Amino acid sequence: QVQLVESGGGLVQAGGSLRLSCAASGRTFSLYDMGWFRQAPGKEREFVAAISWPGGSTYFGDSVKGRFTISRDNAKNTVSLQMDSLKPEDTAVYYCAGAAKRFTAPIRVGTMYDYWGQGTQVTVSS
Length: 126
Description:
Elements: E1 2-7, E2 10-13, E3 18-26, E4 34-39, E5 46-51, E6 58-60, E7 68-73, E8 78-83, E9 92-98, E10 115-116, E11 120-125
Parallel strand pairs: 2-11
Antiparallel strand pairs: 1-3, 3-8, 4-5, 4-9, 5-6, 7-8, 9-10, 9-11
């Protein structure tokens, strides 16, 4: 079993920054491509970012492109999401996700991931 635990969420003002972290435990050798998704009240789950194994390629959703960055530390089994220039529209629960395989292209579909964290709340005030 693989467990993913997100941390780093909180309340920030518009224009501020937050850094989310996802710590993996268990059979971490089964983790390859990783992603971040978010879900706001009344909205569907939205793709935020993805990073390949071992970390050479990254991809971002249009709504966060240029403001968010994703990185991973494979030795520590962690994945981070640096969020800058936050907007009220970024308010959501953020989830990290892991895939048990390596894909040939960034995976934007949540159902393609095998493991999910419990989520961490990010609230951006205007």
